[in-house]
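Ticket #4471: structure export looks truncated?
Reporter: QA, pipeline team
Priority: medium

Steps to reproduce: submit the single chain below to the structure queue and open the exported record.
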Amino acid sequence: MKPIDTGVTDDSTIYFHSASTEAQKMFYYLLCTGHYYCDSNYSVSRNKFDSFLIMYAKHGRGSVTINGVTTLFYPEQAVLIDCYKPHSYKAEGELEIYWIHFDGSTSREYCNYITSHSGNVISIKNTFSFENTIKRIYTTFYNKNKISETLISKYITDLLTEMITSINEVNPDYGHYKVIENAISYISENINNNLDLNELSSSVSLSPYYFSRLFKKETGLTPHTYIISARINAAKFYLRSSSYPIKEICFSCGFTSESNFCTSFKKNVGVTPSEYRNSFLLNK
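Actual output as written to the record:
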């Protein structure tokens, strides 16, 4: 349908969607979407509009103001706004945008993470993918296609993920993140082997001291605590889904003795490996 917003041309369109109760409980869900061609009169200012907003600038220039701070945005940039809070945005001359208002159970967590790292304007790395995804949501309504709330939720997730990926790759700490990601992969591949700090730090070409500090900063856990947790998670899987003897599970998950395994397991899980396994057998 044609929008009635001031500063929006007749070529612009807007579509509204009433999400099902199930979608509101389970998914990211859409409230409305649009493709706007704006002139310099386009301006929006609200104290509150119960949703979150993603805009993608196709052409032109705009600005967004949050908490008294105004930021310009340009083509191939996205804007993310928590519309539950006071906000305003406008065209700075001619502006073409695709946009969606959405909500969902973890929308605020995503929004807070992204805006705390990048502000409300995000320079998108994979612009082709991002633009195609937001256009898919819009064209679902424009082409009068069957509405799949599951698929719309996936598209919204893809948009949020692409924003996080974009801010991480321009963040000076992104290299640190990749180092720890490689270390975690190494732990996963060698969980049944004897892993010590020297070996782990060597696998990513860092000193043991610097690696320990970096690992704790990125994961919130020391390397030793992370390894124990990973081994216990692997053991829980085998205790639930196999009939292997506990001793065999213990050594296959990298523990050096059965007594050490049982002590660590009870400390972290609250029950012994046998009690853990029996609790699943009783519930079958």
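Status: closed, not a bug. The export was complete when the record was re-opened. Leaving a note from the reviewer for reference: The mean pLDDT is 91.
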